Amino acid sequence: MDVQGKRVIVMGLGNFSGGVSAAQFMAARGARVIVTDLAGTDKLSESLAAIVDLPIEAFRLGGHRESDFSEADLVIASPAVREDNPFLQIARAHGATITTEMNLFFQLCPAEIIGVTGSNGKSTTAAMIHSMLQTAFGSCWLGGNIGHSLLHCVDEIRPGDTVVLELSSFQLEDLGDLKRSPNTAVVTTFTPNHLDRHSSLESYRKAKQTVLQYQQPNDLAILNADDPEVKTWPTCGQVHFYGLGDHGKDGTFWDGDHIVIRREGNHSRVKVMDVMRLPGIHNQSNAAGAICCASALGADCESIRRALCDFKALPHRLEFIGERNGRSFYDDSIATTPESTLAALEALSHPIWLIAGGYDKGLDLNSVAERIAHRVEGLALIGQTAGTIQQLVKKRQTLKRVRDCTSMEEAVAWCFDNSKPGDAILLSPACASFGMFQNFVERGRVFRQAVHGLALPLNQAG
Predict the structure, then answer these.
(1) Which of 49, 58, 254, 385 has a 20 to 30 Å separation from 238 between CA atoms?
(2) Alpha-carbon 156 to chain mean position
(3) Per-residue pLDDT for 462 more than 50?
(4) Is residue 1 included in any domain, yes or no?
């Protein structure tokens, strides 16, 4: 890619490595890189530290400049930037090429790509697939929305390697510009999400379906047979289904403690429940999807079993962080939808003290409020949606202990003081983090700090 001397704008440095990787990639190829972000230095400190030694021509933090975009040859926009952004319109009007970090990676990657998407479960499923393929074959890469951009190391990837990418609706929406879908596509679930960004549920659905839309007859589509929408999504690829029960088609399903792998009339069984370390039916579904994908790509049953045995919960995804005075603490900060919190509530057997609430994405919170009212012992609410959730829960008239908190520290302390040994204190917000926190990672980190700030010593997770 010849960008020597070209003016390249990295629009949106962010905190999840995509902007950093784009800056590294372009600077290494001699581009004149300008990094611009609406956020200031204080919110971008980690990302700025990663590129401090690069020959960046200029940093524009706290706002964008029209002149940069009118003079740009190439703009690499963050997936968070809407297509109708006025600065992108300026760049287009002056002849600049607009792309994204993920689109560049798809264009340059020489290896086969496995794309994993869904409203819930995509991070864990992607990481499980990576672990299984790495165990079976080696030379497997993991990146994308899971927080690891691979663009800056694309030259290290070989044609015989395999790349697993978690793909968000924002990334897939942009990928539609290339008319490209992954060689293997995995779709976990579909429920309303990001309606603050997408103009409608249909727009969100269309973005997600890009993962299948441009597949070829030799490509693979791994679809969740338990999801009434996902199982009907069209593709030209070869479809394999997965589910908790026998769906009657090629793919995988649970049978007691075993996963059954069915392909062209043949069956094989692998016992995995005894090595599964993640709680909850939703993680059984994630495992079935990962096994369906890995086995379709040739991974043997022993490698699959060994990978599951070694697999631990990803950070901030129903992650057990320790025990204090008989209370167990779980960080499920990634739960930015009602469905994610519902899954967490079903996964734990303890009496639960829940910390929920956050930024309002325009999602219907009635279902999670109904379950909260009947499942949890106490509810600490934070963020913009605190009042809404409190009203919805109190309509059910079953949950008596509810507190509106002004900080994570107050929420953790209240749950700890009112709970008893044997209870679980769970951060599973059902909402996005914006407003109080930069992202779900910072929210989980603050939760962990609040737990460590309690007076009694913490028995750490193993």
Answers:
(1) 254
(2) 25
(3) no
(4) no
